[in-house]
Amino acid sequence: MARFYTPQLERIDYVPKKDGKGTRRVWESDAIRNLWAASITTIAGTQSGWSGDNDWTKKQYVLAAEETAKATAWDKGTISLPDKTISLEDNDTWCDHVMALGDKRTSFARELGSSVHDAIEKYFTWRAGQSQAPAVDKSIKPYLYAIDEFAKKYSIKANPSDLAHKIVVREAPAGGNRDFLGQGFGLNHLVLDWKTQSVKTKYPKFKYNYCLQLAAYWAAGGKVGDIAIVILDTSKHEEYTRENLPKIHWKVFDKKETELYYEEFLQTAYLYYRSRDFDIDALRKAFA
To answer: Where are the domains of the chain?
Structure first.
């Protein structure tokens, strides 16, 4: 879902319906008309298919279809398959059934990622002495235990005023919410982004769009310091306990890499707006 920001950095997810009855999701046409900039993640996300990304979302719908076996007319009444829902629905109804299950699979992953991000923000606010210890759901606690060990090992500390900080890349333009600015890995100025990922192979995917996104955060902060991506493995979410913590993978990028990714982000932003008929000059002027 595309997200947009006003020049005042208000994020717009919904707008009023024409008839005044409720709201609807924001459309690109709304952003074009009102000179709203796309979010950094929306622009970077147009490149999410690069670098071996298998399009995880599509896979969830394929798996949903596999879980919801469809019986043909000559099968009726006699089929028995373990762990599957046998459907005698017409094609449209069956497709709706599969889509609903696919939505459920993807929304769980998104909600888990959001919950972990929220807990991490509360953890670093607490570590900085700005709040009480975070109260989180039992299923999220193993991630915090893992982060606590990781943060202590690599001396990761946040600047409390820069947690979940609204930012803008005026050159693009694009708005966003930077997760973390602080210190760590022996670096005094670190822009870091936390990601959740189900890691099924030896190494995680430091996806191309992750790198574009983080380079944009770095540029919005004056192109100072270094960037790093930290990935928490969610592949065994149901099995994690205090004694069995999720694995954490991380990567720090050098200055040259960061600069190249930022150049790519600007090109991606230009093509995003150009291909959708935004008035780029007027948009840049609004965000100047």
So the answer is: 4-286
